[in-house]
Amino acid sequence: MKLHKLLSILSISITLSASVSANEAKLYQVEQLKVTTLSTMLANRGIGEWGYAALIEVDGRKILFDTGNRPQTVLQNVKDLNVDLSDVEDVILSHNHGDHTGGLETLRAHYQKLNPKALSHVHVGKGIFAKRVGRANRMLAMKSALENQGVVFSEYANVKEIYPGVWLTGNVARVHPERNWGGRGRIETSDGQIEDNIPEDMSLVINTKDGLVLVAGCGHAGIINTMEHIVKHISPHKITTAIGGFHLVNAEDQHLAWTANKLKHFGLQNLMGAHCTGINSVFALRELLQSNREQVVVGSVGDSFSLSEGVKPGGIAR
């Protein structure tokens, strides 16, 4: 009888331990993180362009988030910044627009000579290959060409942990009317044409001891919609840092005030607003958040954020 009870206790203990381990794995906190901007408009080192790309270095791994606009921009900028992409295998494309995907084929062609696995796994959101009405979706041709070179594409509709503590949002529900796309595009579906609201828009989330770090390309789903999606589906922790493009360049004062109020509730402390965020919008958010020029900055080529040093803005954006 005593042996039976002991075995039962051990069984429960093992079950609880497994459950705790699974939960801890889901909420794993990365120990090292550095995000470096490789493409955006402002630059005092390298080339500026209307586009976005960033290198994510996390716990010994490297991930390329978006690839810039012009074919040669990121390739030139990493040379100027003394950044090595030859050991990067994972690429995340936030959405189908050319200012985020334009450098991929050039980068793959260059680095596969040094490492056959370089840029060989491309992560995208579901809908990126959808047929667009009135214009060719160049992602289809790019996918075919790269697959012929051995590149693998993974497509996500839902949240996905690609490495411990490193998550992709998948498709984000448009709960709030943060309409920041053109509004004229259409997508062809089996049920007819629908509005092209960039359904594949996908962001990267890293769980750290200091809170969640969000990296976005354009944030077409809306920065607040994206953050609510993260809290609901990934982790309820504070989102303390937001980096990349958030398409607030044309936002009116009322919308910026609403956005800032929401950001306060998420615990945002650091904002590196690059690309389509808008310079004036970044300054407005800094004031509305009652922050400072050390933590809320305009993104520029070569700037960085790390767990050890925080925000390090580029010289032109100080």
Automatic annotation (TrEMBL):
InterPro entries from the UniProt entry: DHPS-like_MBL-fold, Metallo-B-lactamas, Metallo-beta-lactamase_dom, RibonucZ/Hydroxyglut_hydro
GO MF entries: 7,8-dihydropterin-6-yl-methyl-4-(beta-D-ribofuranosyl)aminobenzene 5'-phosphate synthase
EC number(s) recorded for this UniProt protein: 2.5.1.105
Enzyme class, UniProt record, top EC level: transferase
Leader sequence residues: 1-22
Lineage, uppermost ranks: Bacteria, Pseudomonadati, Pseudomonadota, Gammaproteobacteria, Alteromonadales
Record flagged with keyword Ion transport: no
Source species: Thalassotalea piscium
Gene3D superfamilies membership: Ribonuclease Z/Hydroxyacylglutathione hydrolase-like
Domain Metallo-beta-lactamase span(s) in chain numbering: 52-113
Keywords of the record: Signal, Transferase
Protein name (database record): 7, 8-dihydropterin-6-yl-methyl-4-(Beta-D-ribofuranosyl)aminobenzene 5'-phosphate synthase
